[in-house]
Amino acid sequence: MGREHWKKIWVGSAGNMVEWFDWFVYASFATYFAGAFFPEGNDTAKLMNTAGIFAVGFFMRPVGGWLLGRVGDRKGRKAALTLTVTLMSASAVLIAVAPTYSVAGYGGAAVLLVARLLQGLSVGGEYAASATYLTEASAPQHRGFASSFQYVSMTAGQILGLGLQIVLQRTMSTEALHSWGWRIPFIVGALGAAVVFYLRRNMLETEVYEETADDGVAGAEKGTIKALWAHRREAFLVIALTMGGTVAYYTYTTYLTKYLSNSAGLSKQTATLVSFCALIVFACLQPLAGRLSDRIGRRPLLITFAVGSTLLTVPIMTMLRHAGSFWPALGLSLLALVVVTGYTSINACVKAELFPTGVRALGVALPYAIANALFGGTAEYVALWFKDAGVESGYYWYVAGCAAVSLIVYVTMRETRDIDLGRVGRGDRAAVPAPVRARETAADSAS
């Protein structure tokens, strides 16, 4: 890959990392600030309240997906990416200064809710804008590898959040963390967003977007629901193929720390360290799996994920429940994340490869955001609901069932590796001709 490609990937990934740092620190620090915004009571109930507000952010993602997807298709990927990080910075500031229940009653929870709504708008557009940008910015034979950096940066954001949590746990008392220390990561996130705003103001637009005359979408219809409706089959496909992957991903990343401390009986420090170590390995796996998809195709990896998640979720979650210590918990977490890698490493480019350039950002953003609102955003709340009802194992079967539904989609969908992004939607012209693919593969091997 050329230097210019790496520069585009770096700028797109850096912003994505800060976006998801802000998004995930809400979840990872929820155990510390849950009591700050709600009256005293059952600890699980307070976590469910904060999880409910977390889920509300997901329900704003379809709105953000529509709004920012439209901006990305009509004004450019750069404009959408700059706007998303601005919204995320504002939300981080609001959480950092939100008053507690003892100061403003439920007013603090209201500020928290507004902040999560802004985060939902931002992330609803960020996923599609960065997925589209990273996919379009890479050479055709490297799309899987390049787009895998979306989840590298997403995971890096969570790793930084967990790393900061570990540092604060070791340098501050538990009382201080519950009192005011939980505000620190949101201040850090706001400052990071300001830096990324500057980087994105100077980023380069993708060549594919600048050459959209041959994509089959009229200029006035770019980024519109009407244009997306013409590709409704692909939109519904995005929802279905996202269903199993997003539930599994949030189960083994966002919810894992709470599950290990609230159900498996590990200390918060140990649970955080397990997640931190597992996510480092997970991030390193993404480019390897993305590169493999450039060689063998996207479908084999998606099918491997779905089969593994369907068959292994129940035994993995059951054994995690009785892990008891750091090493068993880490080993099981790594096994789960290796399985999930089959989805996370390539889902961005698979979705981007389904739509023409003039509706690609909206086509990825809106159906993906809907799927996340229905399944990803509610995963933690559903898990806590099963736990509160005394049938926690029911959640394991729920995750496995979602993966099974997606498996049907993966088996029946077409392969997208050889799609020409500039000609999607133009019938038989959408595929990269075999001689071109052969030349690209030969050149890649020679390099």
Automatic annotation (TrEMBL):
Subcellular location: Cell membrane
InterPro entries, A to Z: H+-coupled_symporters, MFS, MFS_dom, MFS_trans_sf, Sugar_transporter_CS
Regions that span the bilayer: 20-38, 50-68, 80-98, 180-199, 235-252, 272-289, 301-320, 326-346, 358-375, 395-413
Family statement drawn from the similarity comment of this UniProt entry: Belongs to the major facilitator superfamily. Metabolite:H+ Symporter (MHS) family (TC 2.A.1.6) family.
Biological source species: Streptomyces roseoviridis
A Pfam family recorded for this sequence: MFS_1
Keywords from the UniProt entry: Cell membrane, Membrane, Symport, Transmembrane, Transmembrane helix, Transport
Lipid bilayer topology: Multi-pass membrane protein
Protein name: MFS transporter
Domain Major facilitator superfamily (MFS) profile span(s) in chain numbering: 8-418
